[in-house]
Specification:
Helix content is 67%, strand content 0%. The chain is mainly α. Helix 9 (106-113) crosses helix 10 (121-131).
């Protein structure tokens, strides 16, 4: 089944099968980290001091998001500037804002998260997704490529204008809203409440690869 066929399908079994495909694309070395962080305990994050939050980002989140070794090294190098320049306390302020902003405001969330050195819009959306999977999904080039194959989307023109490898905050808002809307649609169609933007992004990610 293509992503276009799935998107317009009211078959709950087909959607669940598509979701199960996600773990087949995960590297065996990353499975343990995924099990550790999903679902993420927000109280654990809330209690972290500046050093603990930096360590979480460096040792856990960046590994979760950037599975390619070269990309991980590049983003970690940017993050490490906080430690090298004695500015780790700046990260604590960002963490507090991430814990308190209104979750309906996609753009605000993306702007806060992307203020962390090393995180573009894709990386920012991943952190928001890990923290708030019911409200956010991860956006990246694969999600854009998959959605471009879906016929009839009102956001079609906007999708075509996006640079998949250089997403802007406005692009992130559009993509996450599409995921939110689809999660709501699936929950309504299948009479459940378990579909989330995160699950939608996982499916799109597999189709866009």
């Amino acid at each position: 089944m293509t992503i276009n066929e799935l998107w317009h399908s009211g078959n709950a079994h087909a959607w669940n099968q598509a979701l199960e495909r996600y773990m087949r694309f995960v590297k065996p070395a990353d499975v343990e980290l995924i099990r550790e962080l999903e679902p993420l305990n927000l109280e654990r994050i809330r209690k972290l001091d500046a050093q603990g939050w930096y360590d979480f980002l460096f040792d856990k989140y960046f590994r979760w998001k950037y599975t390619a070794a070269n990309r991980l090294a590049t983003t970690r190098r940017s993050l490490s500037k906080y430690a090298e320049n004695g500015r780790i306390d700046e990260l604590l302020s960002i963490k507090e804002r991430l814990l308190s902003f209104p979750k309906r405001d996609i753009k605000q969330g993306l702007l806060i998260a992307s203020s962390i050195h090393g995180l573009g819009i894709a990386g920012a959306s991943g952190l928001l997704t890990l923290m708030y999977p019911v409200e956010f999904g991860t956006v990246d080039q694969f999600v854009v490529k998959a959605l471009r194959q879906v016929e009839g989307l009102p956001q079609r023109a906007a999708l075509e204008r996006m640079n998949p490898e250089g997403l802007k905050p406005t692009d992130g808002v559009i993509l996450i809203q599409i995921m939110r809307d689809k999660a709501v649609e699936n929950n309504r169609a299948f009479t459940m409440d378990s579909w989330t933007p995160k699950k939608i992004d996982e499916i799109l990610w597999t189709y866009g690869r």
